[in-house]
Amino acid sequence: MKYPEDRWAWVEIDLDALRDNTRALRRMISRDARMMCVVKADAYGHGAVRCAKAMRSAGADQFAVATVTEGVELRESGISEPIVILSQPPMETIQRIVDYDLAPAVYEQDFALALGECAAAAGKVAPYHLAIDTGMTRIGVNWRDVIELRHSIHFHRGIRCAGTFTHFATADVPRDWDFAMQSRRFSEAVGALRDAGYETGLVHCANTPATIMHPEVHEDMCRVGIGLYGLHPAKETRREIHLRPVMSVRGRITRVERPEVGTGVSYGATYRVPKPNIQICTVPIGYADGLSRTLSGNMDVLVNGERCRQVGRICMDQFMFEVSVNNVRAYRPTRAVESGDVVTVLGNDGNEFISADDMAARRNTINYEVVCDFGLRLEKVYV
Ligand SMILES: *Cc1c(COP(=O)(O)O)cnc(C)c1O
Questions:
Q1: Helix and strand tally (H, E) in the chain?
Q2: Radius of gyration over every alpha carbon of the chain, rounded to an integer in angstroms
Q3: Which of 77, 110, 145, 346 has the greatest number of CB atoms lying within 10 Å of its CB?
């Protein structure tokens, strides 16, 4: 394992866990259907290129990204499978889309025709995926206007419909009325396209929760994201599939102090050392690394297999935590720590574990955001 040299902090990515999760999700999908692995936002902070290659070796058929730049990065690293851009990008990117054989989501006539013109000029036929808004109100052509849009772009020989898709707003909620409604509208729209004689390409709508909880909407392809990274989109998916978290976040203690009682710790001195024999330890991870400042004084870290309390405000590049040494009243007296000891912010150490769900709950957000944030600046180590 190669640790970063310039900083005692890193994100550990467990590629074995990633491959296991990919295979476990692949097993939930029929053999006739494809698996599209969503690696947008640098694979939810896990590193898109390394993750895409691991997923490919474990059964991924296609990849999905959020931006043209993300798609280009995958192509340049040697990914030759289809790459879909999950929303319709700006017109200015069309030349790059064609050059790199990316398949954008399409829902506007102007964009579709411009894509067709550019592809035709290059002697190509550009694949696209028709995005349909069935009730989430984010992207796509309204489900009522699908035929009209297709009719208006149908004549162009420079484009080819490689897929037709929608996205659910509430697939993570069991027995949800909106999910049923979106699902029905999608079926109607796909049916109308077929009746009108339009090619639909691969029909797809299932994200991770729908892949796990709704086999009836798998269609031709499932688009899985969060589950690949070993995180659950809802508590209900936990009993359906075993997933292993892929990301851990660790650092090393850069400094240990034993300050006098009353000494302030960090900006604002919101925390003061309350008693003797407390070690205040510094770790070079801060909110610019994705450790949200809202966690200040409200999170634990693991050192030598034990939980320790983070104290004082989390800074941009560092935070502090306390170790109560020789605390004879504690069930297990904590051993003193030293500079250089490994600190776990996310992941496990001995029998203790800090999960992204845990951290998300303390931050009032979801596990998706927790891992995306840690991808921002910390160097990644693949193990
Ligand atoms: C992000 C995204 C997904 C993946 O969602 P998960 O909940 O992570 O599985 C699928 N489809 C679209 C359109 C997305 O934007």
A1: 11, 21
A2: 24
A3: 346
Indicate if ligand 1 lies below 6 Å from the C-beta of 205: no
Query: Which residue type occupies 148?
Result: E
For residue 110, the tally of other CB atoms under 10 A from its CB is 10
Q: Using a 6 Å cutoff on CB, does residue 233 contact ligand 1?
A: yes
Q: Relative to the CA of 368, which ligand 1 atom is closest? A: 8
Q: What is the pLDDT of residues 248-286, one digit of tens each?
A: 999 999 999 999 999 999 999 999 999 999 999 999 999
192-229 residues labelled b (16+ CB within 10 A) or e (exposed): ebeeeebebbbbbbbbbbbbbbbeebbbbbbbbbbbbb
- Total structural domains in the chain? 2
Say if ligand 1 is within 6 A of residue 171 CB.
no
Residue that terminates a domain, selected from 230, 255, 279 = 230
Enumerate the active-site residues: 40, 267
Task: Please tell me the distance between residue 369's alpha carbon and the centre of ligand 1 in angstroms.
Answer: 13
Q: Are 12 and 249 in contact (CB under 8 A)?
A: yes
- What is the 38 CA–ligand 1 centroid distance (Å)? 7
Instruction: Let me know whether 161 and 28 are in one domain.
Output: yes
Question: CA-to-CA distance for 301 and 318, rounded, in angstroms?
Answer: 13
Dihedral over alpha carbons 71, 103, 67, 193 (to 10 degrees): -150
The enclosing domain of 328 has a CATH number of: 2.40.37.10
How far apart CA 99 and CA 126 sit, in angstroms, is 10
CATH number of the structural domain spanning residue 183: 3.20.20.10
pLDDT tens for each residue of 58-107: 999 999 999 999 999 999 999 999 999 999 999 999 999 999 999 999 99
Domain check: are 209 and 328 in the same one? no
Could you tell me if the CB of 134 is within 6 A of ligand 1? Answer: no
Q: Which structural domain, as residue segments, surrounds residue 347? A: 247-354
The verdict on 135 and 33 lying in the same domain is yes
